[in-house]
Amino acid sequence: MSKFLRKPAISIAGGFLILVGTIMLVTPGPGLLVIAAGLGVLATEYAWAHRALEKVRDRIRRAERKIRRSKP
Fold first, then answer.
1. What angle, 0 to 180 degrees and rounded to 10, lies between the N-to-C axes of helices 3-26 and 31-42?
2. H/E element holding 37?
3. Cβ neighbours of residue 51 under 8 Å, at least 6 residues apart?
4. pLDDT per position as a tens digit, 16-61
5. CA spacing 20 to 30 A to 62: which of 3, 5, 32, 43?
6. Pairwise CA distance, residues 57 & 42, whole Å
7. Do 70 and 53 meet the contact criterion of CB atoms below 8 Å apart?
8. pLDDT grade, residue 70 (50/70/90)?
9. Distance of CA 4 to the CA centre of its chain
10. Contact 63, 35 (CB under 8 A)
11. Residue 68: how many CB atoms within 10 A of its CB?
12. For the whole model, what pTM was predicted?
């Protein structure tokens, strides 16, 4: 892929994944995981996305610990 098309393609793909993940937060589906995937795509080009991805990863880890604690 040419350098000219790389950044717009990554922006569109990452933005789409974040949009779908956001919808999944209120509908059935793994919303946080899809948002993390979108941020992972965007983090290949944008530093702000890398920082946001770290925050989402932390939130996923906290949710995982909470789920593990609630199991009998």
1. 160
2. helix 31-42
3. none
4. 999 999 999 999 989 888 999 999 999 999 999 999 999 988 988 9
5. 43
6. 15
7. no
8. confident
9. 24
10. no
11. 8
12. 0.78
